[in-house]
Write a structure and sequence with these properties.
Elements (H helix, E strand, L loop, with lengths): L7 E2 L5 H10 L5 H12 L13 H10 E2 L3 E8 L5 E7 L4 E9 L2 E6 L2 E2 L17 E2 L2 H16 L7 E4 L9 H12 L11 E5 L3 H10 L4 E5 L5 H7 L2 H4 L2 H15 L3 E6 L8 H11 L4 E6 L14 H13 L4 E3 L13 H11 L2
Parallel strand pairs: 1-2, 6-9, 9-10, 10-11, 11-12, 12-13, 13-14
Antiparallel strand pairs: 3-4, 4-5, 5-6, 7-8
Helix pairs in contact: 1-2, 4-5, 6-9, 10-11
Bound molecules: iron/sulfur cluster (SF4).
The site of iron/sulfur cluster has 12 residues, from loops.
Length: 354
């Protein structure tokens, strides 16, 4: 049977939804755990191989659901082993995921939307407007695809960062369901503290996240310590300026006893002076937080440049001297289309130009 691309992927269902779906098929609830195990532990490639499920059920599931909703259409591997995957979804849209190797394990950065409407001025992903949200299963499939590849050498996706194309909190329900699925003991069992959601600062969703008392990590793309500059770089700041954003983050951090990460991309002669570092320190002083300084991978269309290593180290020093904990992230994959969304943007351009 040829499956219609509009069919839902089975990876969209969390355990409870799987129990409900199976109950509609007259099955007992324990079948959901069996099915979850086949999907995520045994990494089944087809419904037919799920040998301890009734044949009539696997046939029905195979008529009703897609299994893997994506395929790899391009990859780039950098000298440092960073691997960028371009995936095509069942409806023909494409998204990126990036696997990076750190001393603390392998981290996979996944996309949460096809394109992004947030319009951050330095970002390649924002060059292509949002076409649609990804479903929970389309996000889970990015992880599973890479995990299956790592299985060959006994490797593991240790950490997931939802920081690729898209604003996760603009696709809140699907992102939270995705986190639940990959975190589930019957799923990929990736610990909540190994899953990081990175938002540009959608305050109402930060409040929802705080109210949910989740154990996932929260990172904020800050990139500027003052409203005028942040509004220029990140239009979301017009809707949720820094005082509102910081108040929501303080409340979240205090209520949940969680440490926050502030992401700060260093842009040459834009946000990289001592004055910026001091303002940044003032902004987050007293919070349970640290700053992750990120080297910039230039995007031709935007005209921003990254800073030298010396400059980045100096900025780091100023933060530390002003009482702010910071890390300076190494550059990953700068010999490939390393900026978020760059590979996809090039692919889409080529496609449009025939
Ligand atoms: S930085 Fe994130 S939120 Fe901003 S345009 Fe890029 S993908 Fe969207």
């Amino acid at each position: 049977m040829v499956k219609c691309p509009c069919m839902q992927t089975i990876y969209d269902l969390n355990l409870k939804q799987m129990e409900e779906m199976l109950a509609e098929h007259g099955q007992k609830s324990y079948r959901a755990k069996q099915l979850f195990t086949w999907l995520y532990r045994k990494r089944a490639e087809s419904f037919e191989e799920m040998s301890d499920l009734p044949k009539a059920l696997t046939e029905k599931l195979s008529e009703e659901y897609l299994l893997m909703p994506l395929k790899e259409i391009e990859r780039q591997v950098a000298r440092d082993g960073t691997t960028k995957y371009l995936f095509e979804m069942a409806d023909g849209s494409s998204v990126e995921a990036v696997l990076m190797h750190f001393h603390f394990g392998d981290s996979l950065c996944i996309s949460s939307q096809v394109g992004c409407n947030m319009g951050c001025k330095f970002c390649a992903s924002g060059l292509l407007k949002k076409q649609r949200d990804l479903s929970a299963g389309e996000m889970a499939a990015q992880v599973l695809y890479v995990q299956k590849e790592l299985d060959v050498n006994g490797g593991r996706v240790d950490n997931i960062v939802i920081m690729g194309t898209g604003e996760p909190f603009d696709n809140y329900d699907n992102v939270m369901r995705f986190c639940e699925i990959v975190n589930s003991d019957h799923g990929l069992a990736i610990g909540a503290r190994h899953i990081t959601i990175s938002t540009c600062g959608i305050v109402p969703r930060i409040n929802d996240f705080a109210a949910g008392h989740y154990q996932y990590n929260l990172a904020i793309s800050l990139h500027a310590p003052e409203d005028e500059l942040r509004s220029r770089l990140m239009p979301i700041n017009h809707a949720y300026p820094l005082d509102e954003l910081m108040a929501a983050l303080k409340a979240y951090s205090e209520d949940n006893h969680r440490r926050l990460t502030f992401e700060y991309i260093l842009l040459h002669e834009v946000n990289d002076t001592d004055a910026h570092a001091k303002k940044l320190a003032d902004l987050i002083r007293g919070m349970n937080a640290y700053v992750n300084l990120i080297p910039y991978n230039p995007v031709d269309e935007h005209g921003f440049q990254g800073v030298s290593e010396k400059k980045a180290l100096h900025f780091y020093d100023v933060l530390m001297k002003n009482g702010v904990k910071a890390t300076l992230r190494q550059k990953h994959g700068d010999d490939i289309d390393a900026a978020c969304g760059q590979l996809r943007a090039r692919h889409e351009r080529n496609r449009q130009n025939g």
